[in-house]
Automatic annotation (TrEMBL), chains A, B:
It comes from the Bacteria. It holds the Pfam family Iso_dh. The gene is leuB. This is 3-isopropylmalate dehydrogenase. Residues 5-353 form the Isopropylmalate dehydrogenase-like domain. The lineage of its organism: Bacteria, Pseudomonadati, Pseudomonadota, Gammaproteobacteria, Nevskiales.
Length: 357, 357
């Protein structure tokens, strides 16, 4: 059997720093005998700098050929003034759409040792373990028509189209129910069915899919209420499934509940479980180049890659355990340190995790 | 001068109970000599029961003739199975659009005595005072086309149109800047400019309007980041201005930060400051008919009515002060009582506030 091919896209600002630590984990696993190999490419601002486009052909080719992709973080002030079509986020949207990465898995997990870093009370988040499933290749992100026009009376108007087809909804719903089966068997589908036609269809299709999963409990919640309930009583949720724009908002909100956004990985999967894996946090321009960034979310993204694309849940568990270990040992990068706690750098954190592995 | 005319729409479930207490406040003010009068009408489920439509002609006429409207809460399980066109929320959307109530003001205010009821840490919310300005008559709520169709290959599709015109954006932006002038002089405009064409226009127009308010600081934030920042560090905000759907989500999230959703009023204004005033909370079917609902948000809505429509900020301040007084005195309805605290009913709370006035 040939090696599994991983394409590594470090991205911008702290991207290369955190990626260097994730590569140490890959090296360890390869040295242990795992049949993996990797190459590097550009996405986002780095790709624009190198090749004039945030998702250049070279990356497209490599991404299509790869079995899995590991992404650092893209974007930052250096690229804010670029024309819209070549801004870093276009690269991100481009690769998602190009590879059909429709299922975005975003766990929101509390590390009880770090509850102090949350703005929520300890008892509200202790033990929190939510999985948000965000549809990633449809909705108002890609719906047509979209644009600008001038009305008869001379005013500018902007417009976008929210849109879902039944098959698009069905496939993300199935991912949600399958995931729930391996967890607490509860799916909460979030929509705005009392206002939107798209949401009406969404809800109908989800209800239909649910018939194939009689062992999983399905509830529905309006998106405004979901935004409230995530703050009020986040532990009521197991799996949340929702569309692209609502998922964008709710998954970011959820990731902040634990106060440890530097620790949360994510996966974006296609229909064959080929996936792109990346930390939830951004490129952190303010601390770039200083060796202070937290590599944990990127390393946990490696774990998700082994679990979902390589079907090696055992390795994912080892990586999760190693991370928990170093946290229990009191290792802290600046973002997760409480006042007075000793702070270590990106490299020390990476080395500590590799040692724990 | 003739009396100011208030149309009272108690609505469904706890609606009539909380409204009865607000009426006591109106009675007191009238007895003191304020030139106000009121009449009652139906909206939502109650209107459907009485007249077969959630926003019937009788209410339309009365609402157009009134100077201000006081609304309880609409909706509930009794009406969930009704055809979509006559569900209670259609009444709500109908009256907003019909009266041109484009500016929805939703304060999120911490009552420091009640910080215990919040899921957030005391220091995160103590002193919190945000004003969320949500555009209420445009966006994907009303954009055309919307509906359902079948694709060439036989699949169902649902779609909706997000839409804003420059004048719609300009008028809500002006309300935001004017409001900020009377507060801490900071406006944060929330959009998804990196993805949506509608948001691009939104941002351009807001920047243009800002030129007329050089004394007010303008910042921009993506909606996903705003959903995070509201949890992380809510006190960074003064005035937030955003579109209808983002505002729906963020204002509900914000109202939950203080854990006192039973205390938050709201106003929806037209271009002449005619307004509809209502508590932020829903119709609470679970406690309806038991005299347990908290009337404070409805009474504070009366205060907002005097401030914004009748230009009597002095009366609003009196009402606010009376509410603070009873809270300081330890009066608690069930929703805001900590474990072990004595609980009073809807009527006792109303009477206590009237007494404090
Ligand atoms: C950068 C932006 C286009 C992107 C999105 O909205 O999907 C980001 O917010 C995310 O969630 O990955
Ligand atoms: C009931 C619903 C249509 C309404 C809305 O989405 O505007 C409600 O959520 C609100 O915020 O007043």
């Amino acid at each position: 059997m040939s090696n599994k091919k991983i394409l590594i896209l470090p991205g911008d600002y702290i991207g290369p720093e955190i990626m260097a630590e994730a590569v140490k984990v890959l090296e360890l696993l390869r040295d242990e005998g795992e049949a993996i190999e990797w190459s590097f490419g550009h996405l986002g601002g780095a790709a624009y700098d190198a090749e004039g486009h945030p998702y250049p052909e070279s990356t497209q080719k490599a991404a299509r050929a790869a079995d899995a992709i590991l992404l650092g973080a893209v974007g930052g002030p250096k690229y804010d003034e670029l024309p819209r079509e070549v801004r870093p986020e276009r690269g991100l949207l481009g690769i998602r759409k190009d590879l059909g990465l429709f299922a975005n898995l975003r766990p929101a997990l509390a590390f009880d040792e770090l509850a102090g870093a949350s703005s929520l009370k300890r008892e509200v988040i202790e033990g929190l373990d939510i999985l948000i499933l965000r549809e990633l290749t449809g909705d108002i992100y890609f719906g047509q028509p979209r644009g600008r026009r001038t009305t008869a009376d001379g005013h500018a108007e902007g417009f976008d189209t929210m849109h879902y087809s039944a098959p698009e909804i069905e496939r993300i719903a199935r991912v949600a129910f399958e995931a729930a089966r391996k967890r607490s068997k509860r799916v909460c589908s979030v929509d705005k069915e009392n206002v939107l036609e798209t949401s009406r269809l969404w809800r109908e299709v989800v209800i239909q899919v649910a018939r194939d999963y009689p062992d999983v409990e399905l509830t529905h919640m309006y998106v405004d209420n979901a935004a409230m309930q995530l703050v009020r009583r986040p532990k009521q949720f197991d799996v949340i499934v929702t569309g692209n724009i609502f998922g964008d908002i709710l998954s970011d909100e959820a990731s902040m509940l634990c106060g440890s956004i530097g620790l949360l990985p994510s996966a974006s999967l296609d229909v064959h479980n080929k996936g792109m894996y990346e930390p939830i946090h951004g490129s952190a321009p303010d601390i770039a180049g200083q060796g202070r960034a937290n590599p944990i979310a990127t390393i946990l993204s490696v774990g998700m890659m082994f679990k979902y694309t390589f079907d090696r849940g055992d390795i994912a568990e080892r990586i999760d355990a190693a991370v928990k270990q170093v946290i229990r040992d009191g290792k802290r990068t600046g973002d997760i340190a409480a006042a007075g706690e000793a702070v270590i750098g990106t490299r020390e954190m990476g080395d500590a995790i590799v040692a724990a592995l």
